[in-house]
């Protein structure tokens, strides 16, 4: 094993090179320092053109146009040990061209002119013949021999059973062996390195990311001798973001002491892959190695990549690779997850027989690669491991997949073809469960798409679809993203009955119209379309919908039934919604998040419920509530909705009606109390009777009235009135209107009272305590008072039959009180001599004319004289 490690390590040293003009890559190892210079692929016509340094110990001039080797080409290269001149056009080598290269032990002249003859080589020099295989395996055998010369003691040849001719240390140049031993004495020995320089893993992770270590420092931290105890426990290794400039194979050689390593992250470095094919020696002792991340490195090509076959996950994103070669699938036969996004896979034209292609004349422009769609010979994906389950090749300039893809990739579950130039949905394996083909140029979904009977997730956003045919979709589909296309009609049919999440945002849809119930749909994103209204039955069609995005549409109102009651999250921002009403949103009892933005709200009472009640719901999160703005009324345009100051009293019609009713009842109660206190009802009733009597227009004679007086008395005083008053007055010749005699039968009582008062010169009131308690006497007094006011004549005569105490006259007889205080009245006396005076005065008063009331009212108050 030690010999194998040394062999691989020296192989790495010899063939680590850069791509430009022999840039020196020097590496110090625990064994020695080995300067190597690479001048391959530079189209050199002679060795001297390279101007290689005389201190070089290994030179690579392969793949050039060298035709002749002269003696002067290698003058001064006293320490040169390895020389590769393969793949040139060498026809002649001057005698003695290599005789001064005393340290030279290996020359590769393979793949040159078939007539090339080599003579005069030193006895110790080993020549790799042109008939043998090209460099890799033969050069490997040389370094195997060099390792044996450098390591003490030498390992027996039996440790290398895979080599047909194990190298013999005795064949190695003694001078080379002696010089290497001396170099080991002068070089810093590995034993002098301090153990604290070793990388120390934590919980199996050795993290050297972002450390910017040089190659020498990294080698010291991963020293196989001093750090074996630490490296043996490493399970994961991270060297990302370190500006590491190294060949991938040499990096893996550093991992050889990590026997249980499982994961390596070497992303964001400057790791390259040697263009020498080392497939014959590409064997690693890793059994658990499964994850490799070499993304964002200048790898460029996978033709000669050498990786452990146990890898199951590899990340080759952004590595500048242009093809996935035919031998890639064989190298990683256990691969399950592969990431290749961010590369530019190139479709090229390749001639079927390169040797038959004639050499173009000088000055001819030769096209070596051209992008060509549907060119089977030049497909950039030549092979893929059939075990791959997860494949991501997004943003790789792919225009189509190889014809073998659908039939060969039968274990593929996830495929990401997004951000490519695919214009037609390719044939895909039926095992596929998730497909992402977003950001492409697809215009139609073909009927064969239904054959993907295991597909559950489909992303085709940002394409050019104009129609959606649900009948072409697999019935197993659960998540579908068709956003950012050009759909005008959204068909939600029974073919999508298992769909759980649907994104149709960014299209040209004008209306959502489910053709049937979708019992599984829980997430619907229809934002940024042209929807102006929702159907009334939408809530019944989407009974299980929990997340609904309607933002960026033209909806002005959401009516009852347009939203499912099962909603938990709703986004209605950036619409033309003017109000949010309880009739619609009050039914959403499960809603926990509401996003609402806009400046079109009508800040009137229709918004009161939202501003004062709904917005304060502790179980509801309302996003954007602080930025809502009013558009109506005009005086509040642009102001914040939350400062609209909408009050319950201003907006509740019920409360307004209740307050109005309460005020009316209060007023009625106050008026009723006042009326009760001041006999208001009686006055109202009297007014009504007066008006009714006036409307009847009883005939009256203002000048020649038929009666001299009308007697108003209570029933209690009827005897005195009839036996004394009536008899005496009529005996004296006065015409008296007496209701028991003169009221017209069949006429209303009030009408008769009004008639008698209007047709009598005087109205004589017989006052007593029973008078003020008589209802009819009240009517007669009221009518008489109104007659006085109507005719402006004082025609009232007061006869006090019994004394009236001041508090015995009710409040409604306030006029009577005033009359008794202001006007002269006659008082009946039981004494006979006083009765004569009473009758005389009464007859005199009846004979007088009625004085105008205005003069009496405006003149001085008359003295109240009690006639006795």
What can you tell me about this protein's structure?
This protein is of the alpha/beta class and 868 residues long. It has six domains: 32-132, Ribonuclease Inhibitor (Leucine-rich repeat, LRR (right-handed beta-alpha superhelix)), CATH 3.80.10; 197-347 and 363-375 and 382-388, Ribonuclease Inhibitor (Leucine-rich repeat, LRR (right-handed beta-alpha superhelix)), CATH 3.80.10; 389-485, Ribonuclease Inhibitor (Leucine-rich repeat, LRR (right-handed beta-alpha superhelix)), CATH 3.80.10; 487-646, Leucine-rich repeat, LRR (right-handed beta-alpha superhelix); 653-680; 706-847, Toll/interleukin-1 receptor homology (TIR) domain (Rossmann fold, 3-Layer(aba) Sandwich). It contains 22 helices and 36 strands. Helix 17 (749-758) packs parallel to helix 19. The longest helix has 26 residues, at 653-678. The N and C termini lie far apart (162 Å).
Please sum up the structure shown:
Belongs to the Toll-like receptor family. It is found in: Membrane. This protein folds into six domains: 32-132, Leucine-rich repeat, LRR (right-handed beta-alpha superhelix); 197-347 and 363-375 and 382-388, Leucine-rich repeat, LRR (right-handed beta-alpha superhelix); 389-485, Ribonuclease Inhibitor (Leucine-rich repeat, LRR (right-handed beta-alpha superhelix)); 487-646, Ribonuclease Inhibitor (Leucine-rich repeat, LRR (right-handed beta-alpha superhelix), Alpha-Beta Horseshoe), CATH 3.80.10.10; 653-680; 706-847, Rossmann fold (3-Layer(aba) Sandwich).
């Amino acid at each position: 094993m030690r010999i194998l490690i040394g062999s691989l390590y020296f192989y790495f040293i010899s063939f680590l090179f850069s791509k430009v003009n022999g840039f020196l890559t020097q590496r110090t190892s625990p064994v020695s320092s080995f300067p190597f210079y690479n001048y391959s692929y530079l189209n050199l016509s002679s060795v001297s053109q390279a101007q290689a340094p005389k201190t070089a110990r290994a030179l690579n001039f392969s793949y050039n146009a060298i035709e002749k080797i002269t003696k002067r080409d290698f003058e001064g290269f006293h320490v040169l040990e390895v020389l590769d001149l393969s793949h040139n056009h060498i026809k002649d080598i001057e005698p003695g061209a290599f005789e001064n290269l005393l340290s030279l032990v290996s020359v590769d002249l393979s793949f040159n002119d078939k007539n090339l003859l080599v003579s005069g080589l030193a006895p110790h020099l080993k020549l790799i013949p042109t008939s043998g295989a090209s460099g890799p395996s033969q050069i490997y055998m040389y370094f195997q021999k060099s390792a044996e010369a450098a390591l003490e003691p030498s390992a027996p040849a039996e440790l290398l059973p895979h080599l047909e001719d194990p190298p013999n240390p005795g064949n190695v140049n003694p001078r080379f062996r002696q010089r290497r031993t001396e170099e080991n004495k002068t070089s810093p020995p590995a034993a002098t390195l301090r153990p604290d320089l070793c990388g120390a893993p934590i919980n199996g992770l050795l993290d050297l990311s972002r450390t910017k270590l040089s190659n020498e420092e990294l080698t010291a931290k991963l020293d196989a001798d001093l750090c074996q105890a630490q490296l043996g426990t490493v399970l994961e290794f991270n060297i990302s973001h370190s500006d590491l400039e190294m060949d991938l194979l040499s990096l893996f050689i550093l991992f050889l002491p990590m026997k249980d390593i499982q994961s390596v992250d070497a992303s964001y470095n400057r790791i390259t892959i040697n263009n020498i094919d080392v497939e014959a020696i590409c064997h690693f002792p890793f059994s658990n190695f499964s994850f490799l991340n070499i993304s964002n490195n200048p790898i460029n090509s996978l033709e000669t990549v050498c990786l452990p076959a146990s890898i199951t996950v590899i990340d080759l994103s952004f590595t500048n690779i242009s093809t996935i070669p035919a031998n890639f699938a064989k190298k990683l036969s256990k691969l399950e997850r592969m990431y290749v996004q961010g590369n530019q896979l190139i479709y090229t034209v390749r001639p079927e027989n390169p040797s038959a292609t004639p050499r173009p004349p000088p000055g001819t422009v030769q096209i070596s690669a051209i992008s060509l769609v549907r060119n089977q010979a030049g497909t950039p994906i030549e092979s893929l491991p059939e075990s791959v389950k997860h494949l991501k090749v997004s943003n790789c300039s792919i225009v189509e997949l190889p014809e073998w893809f659908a039939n060969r990739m039968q274990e593929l579950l996830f495929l990401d073809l997004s951000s490519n130039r695919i214009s037609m949905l390719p044939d895909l394996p039926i095992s596929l469960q998730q497909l992402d083909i977003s950001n492409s140029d697809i215009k139609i979904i073909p009927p064969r798409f239904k054959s993907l009977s295991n597909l559950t997730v489909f992303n085709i956003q940002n394409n050019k679809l104009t129609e959606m045919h649900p009948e072409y979709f697999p019935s197993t589909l659960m998540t579908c993203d068709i956003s950012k296309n050009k759909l005008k009609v959204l068909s939600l049919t029974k073919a999508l009955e298992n769909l759980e999440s649907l994104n149709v945002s960014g299209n040209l849809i004008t209306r959502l119209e489910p053709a049937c119930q979708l019992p599984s749909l829980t997430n619907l994103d229809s934002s940024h379309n042209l929807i102006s209204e929702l159907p009334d039955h939408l809530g019944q069609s989407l009974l299980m919908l929990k997340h609904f995005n309607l933002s960026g549409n033209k909806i002005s109102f959401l009516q009852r039934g347009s939203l499912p009651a099962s909603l938990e999250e709703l986004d209605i921002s950036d619409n033309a919604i003017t109000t949010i009403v309880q009739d619609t949103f009050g039914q959403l009892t499960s809603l926990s998040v509401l996003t609402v933005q806009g400046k079109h709200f009508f800040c009137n009472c229709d918004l009161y419920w939202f501003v004062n009640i709904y917005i304060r719901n502790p179980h509801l999160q309302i996003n954007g509530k602080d930025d809502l703005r009013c558009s109506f009324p005009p005086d509040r345009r642009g102001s914040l909705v939350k400062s609209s100051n909408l009050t319950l009293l201003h907006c509740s019609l019920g409360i307004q009606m209740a307050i109005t009713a309460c005020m009316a009842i209060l007023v009625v109660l106050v008026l009723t109390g006042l009326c009760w206190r001041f006999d208001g009802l009686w006055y109202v009733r009297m007014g009504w009777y007066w008006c009714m009597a006036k409307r009847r227009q009883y005939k009256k004679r203002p000048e020649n009235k038929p009666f001299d007086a009308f007697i108003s008395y209570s029933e209690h005083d009827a005897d005195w009135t009839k036996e004394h008053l009536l008899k005496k007055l009529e005996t004296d010749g006065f015409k008296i209107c007496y209701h028991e005699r003169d009221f017209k039968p069949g006429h209303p009582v009030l009408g008769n009272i009004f008639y008698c008062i209007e047709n009598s010169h005087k109205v004589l009131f017989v006052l007593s305590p029973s008078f003020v308690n008589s209802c009819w006497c009240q009517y007669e007094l009221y009518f008489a008072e109104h007659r006085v006011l109507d005719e402006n004549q004082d025609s009232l005569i007061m006869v006090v039959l019994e004394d009236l105490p001041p508090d015995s006259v009710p409040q409604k007889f306030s006029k009577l009180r005033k009359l008794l205080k202001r006007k002269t009245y006659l008082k009946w006396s039981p004494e006979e001599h006083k009765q004569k005076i009473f009758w005389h005065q009464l007859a005199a008063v009846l004979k007088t004319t009625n004085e105008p009331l205005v003069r009496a009212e405006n003149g001085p108050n008359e003295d109240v004289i009690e006639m006795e």
